[in-house]
Design goal:
Elements: E1 9-13, H1 18-29, E2 33-38, H2 43-52, E3 55-58, H3 66-78, E4 83-86, H4 102-129, E5 133-138, H5 151-171, E6 176-183, E7 186-187, H6 189-192, H7 197-205, H8 209-220, E8 229-230, H9 231-242, E9 253-256
Parallel strand pairs: 1-2, 1-4, 2-3, 4-5, 5-6, 6-9, 7-8
């Protein structure tokens, strides 16, 4: 299926690994010009540059001036922005709400919500000039599903989902569609890296990290399909939402969690 993304300019935040890396690769394979923003350039990003010409910008998007420093080079290089994917986010599990001080709340909100606010503000003038611009915010089922261990992350994602609705209401009449994707557990380094959630789950349940991801997590979290989501599946949904084939979809939130969330 031709998604009509060839030649479009897509900027993706938090793309050094995980969902962001998968999104960047998916847009590149569709023939889009891709600019990524992250604090480090991983070998995987270097591979996308070598194979598809993806431009990787080293930038801290959690800072007040980071988003302008990121979007500016994209406009300088290609003269336009057609798609923005706000993927950057951070979560640090803690035993209790009482263990999270103001500095940590601010850090998580800067990474997860304010980076999207500032990058959207930097990109929107250029998206408005594009012929059918699109913003896709990578939210989370934690925006709606209580999980006390990451209460600050959950609150930030709830804010991102609300931001999606507000931006859509203002800018859809002017040609910019804004949608959100809310994944459940996704097989990314957040889970699978040494010391990640898979290792923690394995330690608690007496299994291996692989068994934790393949069996324990789907069962304990009530994932109806019996498996966690793959990063490329989130990327495929982002491609569709960015494409003209989704031209009348805006202000929507798409859950991709294998049926974990049971309520409407």
């Amino acid at each position: 299926m031709d998604l009509h993304l060839k030649g479009k300019v897509a900027v993706v935040t938090g793309a050094s690994k995980g969902i962001g890396l998968a999104v960047a690769g998916a847009f590149a394979r569709e023939g889009a010009h891709v600019i990524t923003g992250s604090r480090s350039i991983t070998p995987e990003l270097e591979g996308l540059h070598e194979k598809y010409g993806v431009t990787a910008v080293t930038v801290d998007l959690s800072t007040a001036d980071g988003p302008d420093a990121f979007v500016g080079p994209a406009v300088d290089q290609y003269g336009r922005v057609d798609v923005l994917v706000n993927n950057l986010g951070a979560a640090t599990p803690r035993p209790s709400f009482l263990d999270i001080d103001d500095a940590e709340w601010q850090r998580i909100f800067n990474m997860t919500l304010f980076s999207a606010v500032r990058t959207s503000r930097a990109a929107l003038p250029h998206l408005l000039d594009a012929d059918g611009g699109s913003i896709i915010n990578i939210s989370s089922i934690n925006a709606r599903l209580p999980f006390p261990a990451v209460v600050d992350y959950s609150a930030a994602k709830a804010g991102l989902t609300s931001l999606t609705k507000s931006l859509s209401e203002e800018f859809a009449p002017r040609g910019v569609r804004v949608n959100a994707i809310a994944p459940g557990p996704v097989r990314t380094p957040f889970w699978t890296a040494p010391g990640g959630f898979a290792d923690a789950t394995a330690a608690q349940t007496g299994t291996t990290a692989q068994e934790a991801m393949d069996v324990v997590v789907p069962q304990s979290m009530g994932i109806s399909t019996g498996r966690v989501t793959e990063a490329h599946e989130v990327a495929d949904l982002a491609l569709f939402l960015a494409s003209p084939l989704a031209g009348n979809i805006t202000g929507a939130e798409f859950t991709i969690d294998g049926g974990q969330v049971k309520t409407l």
